[in-house]
């Protein structure tokens, strides 16, 4: 029997991985097409190709759940048609055990990808985004996308933040309601309470304009721990940064900080609980594989699982959003659909 299970695990892993690669490639093509709209003299086709290629694996996170489920269903459907599952059942092995052991292939893929995502892929994606932000023009930045910060008589605004670097930066120092010093730069590096402006394009000192293209200017600025409260910045953080911010925001917080913390926890638990979501989906839809092939084909069961996984994702997002709206525990909101699916599956296998 161990030979059968090793075969099923390897088949599930290989098919899930192949489907995952197909999704990544399709996403890469569509993203490359969209990046062509930003082509300029500096951000050419090669740079767009490089950005799409390096950021594609990190974006593949959204396809992981569907790839693992689809790979499992196709693998088990083929095994059912070949009679392998009937051999296992005739040996006294329960359908639940067959499904759980066979799901190890998909779970191995998910754990490997999540580990790579945290250690390598996230960093590659952020570096490619930084390179792109440095190359493209900053004229497209809108006022409503800027983040403003104030420290005594100093003001700072920027358009985008990636890790410890900010882009489309403006810095002002005001005395007696007059601007006495200002800097406009394409980017700046943040280090604790120090800001290093990279190759400033314009500097104003006491009403005198000067160009300092090849010089870097340092300024002290009392920066909050959460430099930008933009929710889109959460996706660029790694798990360590998210955990640090969650601990920092522990306790009573209000206003934008509470909303920011809730969405931070949502992304954090979504990453941590991804294998559990995948396993609950596999256990639930794996039950239908053991039905008669005369009643329904393997193809119809695969389509059913894909539609079901889509509905599950909607319900999970809905329950999490409800938990955020009513100030409830985000972890509980995230776990409710998976737990409900697992409980239903237990009753199905018992019957």
Question: Can you give a write-up of this model?
Answer:
This protein has about 350 residues and is α+β, with helices and mostly antiparallel strands. Strands 1, 2, 3, 4, 5, 6, 7, 8 and 9 form a nine-stranded antiparallel β-sheet that branches. It is about 60% helix and about 15% strand. It is elongated and about 90 Å long. The protein has eleven helices and nine strands.
Write the layout of secondary structure elements.
Elements: H1 2-35, H2 45-59, H3 64-82, H4 84-90, H5 95-102, H6 104-135, E1 147-151, E2 154-158, E3 160-162, E4 165-175, E5 178-191, E6 194-198, E7 202-205, E8 208-210, E9 217-220, H7 239-248, H8 256-272, H9 274-286, H10 298-325, H11 330-350
Antiparallel strand pairs: 1-2, 2-4, 3-4, 4-5, 5-6, 5-7, 6-9, 7-8
Helix pairs in contact: 1-2, 1-3, 1-6, 2-6, 3-6, 3-9, 3-10, 6-9, 7-8, 9-11, 10-11
For the structure shown, list the relevant keywords.
single chain; 351 residues; alpha+beta; 9-stranded antiparallel β-sheet; 11 helices
Quick take:
The chain is an alpha+beta fold and 351 residues long.
Query: What is the H-and-E element order?
Result: HHHHHHEEEEEEEEEHHHHH
Amount of beta strand: 15-25%
Count of helical stretches: 11
> What is the overall pLDDT average?
83
Q: Roughly how many Å is the radius of gyration?
A: 26 Å
Basic shape: elongated
Derived from helix and strand composition plus strand pairing, the structural class reads alpha+beta
Oligomer: single chain
As residue ranges, the low-confidence spans are 138-144
Q: Report the end-to-end length measured between terminal Cα atoms.
A: 24 Å
